[in-house]
Amino acid sequence: MDGIGEAIFPYHLPDELVVKIFSLLPPENLVQAKCVGHSWYYHINHLIKDPSFIAQHLKNSSSTKYIVIRQEQALSLLTMLNNDRGNGEIRYETEDFSSRFVSRERYARDYYLRYHCNGIFCMHHELLRVFTLFNPSIKELRKLPPPSITDCWHPGIVGFGYDQRTNDYKIINIALDRFLSSRAEVYRMSSDSWMEIELPVETPCAAEARFTAYCQGVFYCESSSETTNMLVSFDMSEEVFRTILFPQDRLTAETSFECVNVWNESLTLFLSNKDRPLSIEMWVLNTLDSTWYRHLTFERQFINVRPFKFHTDDELVMMSSIGGNSDGEEPLISYACYNINSQRFRPLINVEGAIEYWDFSFTKSLVPVEQ
Amino acid sequence: MSSSSTTTTTTRLLMLKASDGVTFEVEEAVATKLGAINNMVEEEGSEDLICLPNVNGKFLGMVLEWCKKHANNNTNSDKGNDEVNKWWDKEFVMDLDQNTLYHLLMAADYLSGTELVDLLTEKVASMIRGKKVEEIRETFKIKSDFLPGQEEEIRKKNSWAFE
Predict the structure, then answer these.
(1) Domains of chain B by start residue, with CATH
(2) Domains of chain A: which residue ranges?
(3) What CA–CA distances, in Å, run from A290 to A72, A103, A273, A283, A284?
(4) A46 pLDDT higher than 70
(5) Is B94 strand, coil or helix?
(6) Alpha carbon distance B160, B163 (integer Å)
(7) Which SUPFAM superfamilies does the record cross-reference, listed alphabetically (chain B) (predicted)?
(8) Tens digits of per-residue pLDDT, A175-213?
(9) In the predicted model, what is the mean pLDDT of residues A305-321?
């Protein structure tokens, strides 16, 4: 066993351990590591096209969650860093990936990020009325055929998710047509085509990130009417819409909706009451019987600090927005973190230059989108 | 049986014999954290001496040290213990040299110590994660075996990943 120390890693290890080690690395890191030597090159090149490795990698990478932010000239991924100093300070890191998109798409600047799932962005171009799927971690892009609802005036709500049953990626688009009625269509990646489907429930005509969530193959959107508070859900496998009422006694306008969220792989709802606006309730959905249970209640410091998304299962990111108006002035947005176990707040920070935020559950993946 | 014991089960002791003849006496609850030993105990039942010809004493000792910590800390499982385990794991892998890391990983894999394998593969991954090509080569003492121009070509093809 002499000579150990001379390149013992990773190639003296059994193959399954090498695969395991590689499955723990970010995609860009793997692509770079191809340059280390011949064996690395062939091994990695083979792995990143292997569906079972891609699935294993996705499972591991989902523990690192990113928030997607749009800056003046950039699209970036932001991570909250571990706080080793333990002084409660929030530190973050951003990486700009816009050049990868721009080099693949001429009209990149006019695309809006509409949703994401398993490391793939679903982008939409308002003027060209086209959707594009883009995986920034492997720089793969797929332009989708034109939607089937041709007279669509505005794509109001866009969900993107994974159908585990048929191993397919799907987009659900609820759009307003020119008669201002809501219609729905589904895109399936396997057939690369759109199909209009029946929309049996009333839906809102637009939704920002805090109104939507994707959990266990189901897309959810807040959809309260004047009389009843509820969510509308779309199951990516069954391709069926359902409505889910808010918890009992939280069905009326007395209750304010804060955000819908995913926690511990369950759908979570944050609500407050108009009489006690600082107090926030966290409700968790039991999907088996569609009942809610209240997990906790906590007090926020200021009314304009809203729950946003979990970045770990312990810590909820809160977002505060100050100012901003209809004349196009962007609001000043800052973050605080709330630990639901220790019940401690970490103070607000600003993210420089950020003008639009998406949610915290973006994960880097090797999932291919090109044909 | 000890009357002060909080549990009523008797602790069975197992004798583990490494490839170099070194033996370790460990509680069954500790040794069965290793899948391979758990299987042997279930299959062979009464056998108290287990020979492990693929692991030497030094690394078997380290693996068992890890098992002992985790078996102790798992007896009353709560959030606090989780933290203690995490902290202890961090210390355990912090200053491992590559030779030790390699043999320990081989031993943990051979003994099917799943959690320890997870910990050690993560340690290796952390030595590659976020590192430049040259840094990876330096860490693992690898010499580039590409022909002239080959590496440049791969870099050019994947230039976006290097930006």
Answers:
(1) 13-142 (3.30.710.10)
(2) 15-56, 111-245
(3) 42, 45, 22, 12, 10
(4) yes
(5) helix
(6) 5
(7) POZ domain (SSF54695), Skp1 dimerisation domain-like (SSF81382)
(8) 888 787 888 999 999 999 999 999 887 777 666 778 899
(9) 87
Give the type of residue at A302.
Answer: F
What distance in Å separates the CA atoms of residue A10 and residue A21, rounded to the nearest whole number? Answer: 8
Q: What is the pTM of this model?
A: 0.87
Helix axes B98-110, B57-75, angle to 10 degrees: 70
Q: Searching chain B, which residue's CA lies closest to the CA of residue A27?
A: B161
Question: Exposed e or buried b for every residue in A249-277, given b needs 16+ CB within 10 A?
Answer: ebeeeebebbbbbbbeeebbbbbbeeeee
For residue B28, give how far its alpha carbon lies from the nearest alpha carbon of chain A (Å): 27
Please tell me the number of Cα atoms within 13 Å of B68 on its side-chain side.
11
How is residue A185 written in tokens?
């269509």
**8 Å CB contact of A29 and B131:** yes
> pLDDT tens digits, residue range A329-346?
767 778 888 999 988 888
Distance, C-alpha B73 to centroid of its chain: 17
Q: Does B114 touch chain A (CB under 8 A)?
A: no
Between CA A34 and CA A44 the distance in angstroms is 6
Query: Measured between CB atoms, which of B102, B122, B128 is closest to A33?
Result: B128
Residues of A in contact with B109 (CB under 8 A): 14, 17
**B161 contacts A24? CB cut-off 8 A:** no
The residue-averaged pLDDT of A126-147 equals 91
Distance, in Å, from the CA atom of A338 to the CA atom of A300, rounded to the nearest integer, reads 9
Burial category of A98 from C-beta neighbours within 10 Å (exposed 0-12, middle 13-18, buried 19 and up): middle
The predicted structure's pLDDT at residue B49: 86
Q: Which band of pLDDT confidence, cut at 50, 70 and 90, is reported for residue A136?
A: very high
Q: What is the pLDDT of residue A63?
A: 82
Query: Closest Cα partner for A124 from A65, A175, A61, A66?
Result: A175
The owner of tokens 């583990």 is: B16
- The structure tokens listed for A296 are 């906790």
pLDDT band, residue A119 (cuts 50/70/90): very high
B2-35 per-position pLDDT tens digit? 444 454 556 788 899 999 999 999 998 899 889 9
Evaluate the omega torsion of the peptide bond into residue A146 and state whether it is cis, within 30 degrees of 0. no
Residue A153's contacts (CB-CB under 8 Å, 6 or more residues apart) are A175, A176, A177, A178, A180
Instruction: State whether residue B158 sits within 8 Å of chain A by CB.
Output: yes
Tell me whether residues B133 and A13 touch, CB distance under 8 A: no
Q: Which CATH number fits domain A111-245: 2.70.70.10, 1.10.10.60, 2.60.40.1730, 2.120.10.80?
A: 2.120.10.80
What ipTM goes with this model? 0.88
Please determine, for residue A104, whether its predicted confidence score (pLDDT) is greater than 60.
Answer: yes
